[in-house]
Write a structure and sequence with these properties.
The structure holds two protein chains of two kinds. By secondary structure, chain A is mainly β. Chain A is built from no helices and eleven strands. Chain A has strands spanning 4-7, 10-14, 19-25, 32-38, 44-51, 56-59, 62-67, 72-77, 86-93, 97-99, 103-108. In chain A, strand 6 (56-59) and strand 7 (62-67) form a beta hairpin. By secondary structure, chain B is mostly beta strands. Chain B has strands spanning 4-7, 10-13, 19-25, 31-37, 43-50, 53-57, 64-70, 73-78, 87-94, 107-109, 113-117. In chain B, a hairpin with a 5-residue loop joins strand 4 and strand 5 (43-50). Classes of the chains: A mainly beta, B mainly beta. The interface between A and B is medium-sized, with 22 and 25 residues.
Chain lengths: 109, 118
Amino acid sequence: KQEVTQIPAALSVPEGENLVLNCSFTDSAIYNLQWFRQDPGKGLTSLLLIQSSQREQTSGRLNASLDKSSGRSTLYIAASQPGDSATYLCAANDYKLSFGAGTTVTVRA
Amino acid sequence: DTAVSQTPKYLVTQMGNDKSIKCEQNLGHDTMYWYKQDSKKFLKIMFSYNNKELIINETVPNRFSPKSPDKAHLNLHINSLELGDSAVYFCASSQESTRGVALGYTQYFGPGTRLTVL
């Protein structure tokens, strides 16, 4: 059974600081790993999808890396802004998406 | 244009009642999903449907019955509601699938339905 863990559970940083969010998964036989953002009371928005054959994906200020053999992924957010405040979820896809509990990020203006 | 929509957004009901949540996607996707997010914020898949066929059923009580009248709709009917059913239910869809799993494409989520059972 796939177990996904996200550390830290919460993070508070001043505006402009870089963010590092960690995700680990127990079964490395995945098709891909996905990062989502969830705002309070809203659904999930896809940020990045990394295929199992890839090492990283980038979109704007976001960069996600994947080390499948060690069961780890990291989401980097450069030059954080207050609008980045949200909960970030990672999900490992073996034949279904298994989600971590998320990291709640607060960016202070 | 809303890609994945759900109705209702909020649902408050008494224990023992039967209720339904509707989901529609206008993305032309073949696969649709239901997820449950509990009070601890863990998201877990319940069902997936591919072209109206049930593919994944994750040990969900048979009080929960998904129905897919067509590719664009996936409804969730819940019989004999229990206190533990209180949660946020999310519908999602994806473009391509094998065995009902989006191997190469991301999933698009609806805004969620917050179900409260009293």
